[in-house]
Amino acid sequence: MTTNTDVYDDLFLYTTNEKFYVEAVTAKVLLIVDRVNQHIFTQVGTANQISQTAIRRKIWGIVGTIKLLSCRYLIVITDAKRIGTIAGQQIFQMTATDVIPYSKSDLHLTDKQIENNTTYLEMIKSVLNTPYFYFSYTYDLSHTMQRLHNTTPEFLQVYKLMPLHDRADSRFIWNAYLLQDLSSRSEHSNVHRAGTRLFSRGIDTNGNVSNYVETEQLIEVNGDRSSFVQSRGSIPLFWQQEPNLKYKPKPQLCSHENHQIAASRHLDAQIFHYGKQILVNLIDHRGAENVLEKEYRAVVSRIGNQNVRYEAFDFHAECRHMRWNCEVVPLPALPVY
């Protein structure tokens, strides 16, 4: 595939027995997916070149493709809603998808394979039904406005010429793996260590922490914009909190792992992406969580990175009895970098 930096928002999917056609109406270009040999290519053209028997439907975009036991599947966005704008650019939330098989039957599978394939398919659909996937045709949601503002004009010139899938921050592109067949190069990284509470905790040897989230708060008044960026994630130590019948299972440190090396890698990555760091630790200073607070503090001290400041704040002690607006929160104590 040749690289194309254009993004189209007026799309129709045409399905025949042999091919999928995605028509970009305003550009008179077709993306063609061969359902037999799985080749994907583009060509100039319109729907007039497609068989009249093709099934036509409006789509909002392509999530990607994925190979399961039965065959490869094409995943498309079938519905979305506009949720707002950033810097004048429209932002959408994905509300419905379809997972369409390349193969028209599963006769080549055993009964067990059919059962497994159905399970995998339902797992994918369950993830796609998560109501918090966002996209934009004109704005790169993977980078904060703050990050782009702090880059050089020369970089921004190159950045604007790159395809979206090349310039995006792959840490936050949830369909990066699914786009491999549709992009001109393979993505080598993906979203790391996502998971639900209790089932995914701590850090891995590469410095990736569980349930990592980057949040940017934007305020725009009369054309002026302000950006505040913070990131959060699981405490960067090797630990686990296996679910049981208790509301709050006891966290367990992994004593055989090297916490310092992994945490140092995590902090180096944080500094690379965001600059100097203030680590605000909100866990309890007493009880079962105290072991995590003490070890986290000790590890940061041993690392001794001058670009890192550790601040422990016992949130539940200071704001007990659900007094979330408690006025004793010592925000002025945090240093300004």
UniProtKB/TrEMBL annotation:
InterPro entries with a match to the protein in the record: SAC_dom
GO MF, one example: phosphatidylinositol-3-phosphate phosphatase activity
A GO CC term assigned to this protein in UniProt: endoplasmic reticulum
E.C. designation(s): 3.1.3.64
GO BP term (any one): phosphatidylinositol dephosphorylation
All residue ranges annotated as the SAC domain in the record: 124-324
Enzymatic reactions: a 1,2-diacyl-sn-glycero-3-phospho-(1D-myo-inositol-3-phosphate) + H2O = a 1,2-diacyl-sn-glycero-3-phospho-(1D-myo-inositol) + phosphate; a 1,2-diacyl-sn-glycero-3-phospho-(1D-myo-inositol 4-phosphate) + H2O = a 1,2-diacyl-sn-glycero-3-phospho-(1D-myo-inositol) + phosphate
Protein name (record): Phosphatidylinositol-3-phosphatase SAC1
